[in-house]
Give the backbone structure.
Amino acid sequence: MKTDELINTATALMAGDKGLLAMDESTSTANKRFEEAGIPQTIEYRRAYREMILTTPNLGRCLSGAILYDETIHQSTKKGELFIDILKKSGIIPGIKVDEGTVDMANFPGKKITEGLDGLRQRLEKYYDLGARFAKWRAVITIGDGIPTKGNIEANMHLLARYAALCQENAIVPIVEPEVIMEGDHSLKKCAKVTAKALKELFKQLEKQKVDLRGLILKPNMVLPGTKREKQADLDKVAKATVECLLHNVPPSVAGIAFLSGGQSPQLATAHLNAMHVKYKGKLPWPLTFSFARAIQKPALDAWKGQDKNVKAAQKLLYTRASLDNAARRGEYTPEMEF
């Protein structure tokens, strides 16, 4: 295991006020977003959309890394320049999603398990040769009547740990994503309890697999009430619940924490990240940043509409959104900064 390389990559990913762009949507997810926006669901439109994102001027000022999908890592601009080379020139570290999505878990009705370990060692070797220096694997934990169960959490966290070990074997920094999803009517307290259980099991499994936490990044959900919950929590309560959960369950040796947005609006995801930095600035053992997908991309996608004439306007929205997340990481974001 190339320990120094792993630590250096993880440190670079968490540096300054930058964050990560999750542009690793699967083909089916990308097509769903395009359908909602009235854009044709073809490989060429997906390629053009990704080109619009990656050629955004000065994007490297906002982002330290970008998580790609298998289709994306092999794609090029219309002029033939590989997307992965554009990232490198921009000072953005290329990453890759390596899980193969979720399926129903056998003997556990209503629960999901993530697939993708088969052949992963060989795929990681190829991705490293292509230039990827970090990877991502997502586990899904659902809150509901009688779920999640201990068995479901254990199985998902074991897979995350096995994936992380294989990544580090190949000098690729693993991002582990144990996502407690927002759908449901659960309370803030319930979300905190389930998130804590998932994190405790995750780090137990990572220790068993001898994963070096100095070369690992955690991508958790924020602690939030369910989307169907009538009473939502204010910014300060979410910040407190989220950070206290992390402080009690995440070892200080972890390289950093990069939140997923989990379906929050761009403005709310940014405001929540900002509130954490305002409340806990200088009091945390690890850096906190963002690894947003829709919370950065949605305004740009809505403006682009699949048309070349809208590229510059869409890129401006993308850059502005990422810049606001940089401000949130510094604890300097205000709603008045919104465009």
User: Anything to note?
Assistant: The mean pLDDT is 95. Residues 3-330 form a domain with the TIM Barrel fold (CATH 3.20.20.70). Residues 188-208 form the longest helix (21 residues). The longest strand covers residues 134-141.
